[in-house]
Design brief:
alpha+beta; Aspartate Aminotransferase, domain 1; 2 domains; five-stranded antiparallel β-sheet; 31% helix
Length: 226
């Protein structure tokens, strides 16, 4: 995860605030630049309308990109200063122009909002080590009916890499068998594969269908409290 991804993880832009902060609206992104370290460097920030964020540091003396601070093995006081100052600029933008959400990706947060409204329950984050993993409980029985977490895609699809958020839901055995034979549905990650199903929340499956499956999962949580 790069500096931008780490800084803006689970944060989403308020586009009106970006403009007030000094961003310029381009065709498909918002652009901001700021000089730092006595004008030796210039930070360029690109915030795309799909939520992606990219940044560059330009050495103003030769007008070339400076990326040494991104190299994990790079050491030295000067490199550290460039990284620290760049991060300060990103954090300032985040604190003034962004809002924090429960999860990372747009579909995940849409589904979360719909769960909250329909079932009157908020996600719980019980594991400090896995701060991006949230569970949803039936408030009457306290049983889980959904789990959202972020993992590397390679954990469920061989030869595919990249951070994704997944939803685990409980379904009937017949439905588990039916859906795991379909595209974009997977045997449950880190849970009982006989009873649970995994979906990647990347808009490959429409919200309406996911909510139908969550409703079935919620039905299994209506039993007696343990």
């Amino acid at each position: 995860m790069n500096i931008e991804e780490n800084t803006f993880k689970r944060y989403f832009p308020d586009y009106k605030k970006l403009i007030n902060f000094g961003f310029i609206v381009k065709k498909d992104f918002y652009f901001y630049e700021k000089n730092f370290l006595n004008n030796q460097f210039k930070a360029e920030i690109f915030i795309y309308k799909d939520g992606n964020i990219k940044g560059r540091v330009i050495d103003t003396e030769n007008d070339e990109e400076y990326s040494l601070f991104r190299v994990p093995s790079a050491e030295g006081e000067f490199v550290g200063k460039v990284k620290d100052e760049f991060e300060k600029i990103l954090i300032d933008i985040r604190e003034n122009c962004f809002k924090k959400d429960y999860f990372i990706y747009p579909q995940t947060n849409r589904i979360t909002d719909l769960i909250i409204k329909k079932y009157n329950t908020l996600p719980e984050f019980p594991w400090e080590k896995y701060d991006g993993a949230g569970i949803f409980r039936n408030k009457t029985t306290e049983k889980w009916f959904a789990l959202i977490m972020n993992i590397d895609k390679s954990k469920i699809i061989k030869n595919k890499k990249g951070l994704v958020e997944i939803l685990n839901i409980k379904l009937s055995k017949d439905h588990i068998k039916e859906y795991t034979e379909k595209e974009n549905f997977y045997p449950a990650y880190h849970m009982n594969k006989i009873h649970w199903l995994t979906i990647i929340l990347d808009d490959s499956i429409e919200d309406k269908k996911i909510l139908e499956l969550i409703e079935e999962s919620f039905g299994f949580s209506k039993g007696k409290k343990k």
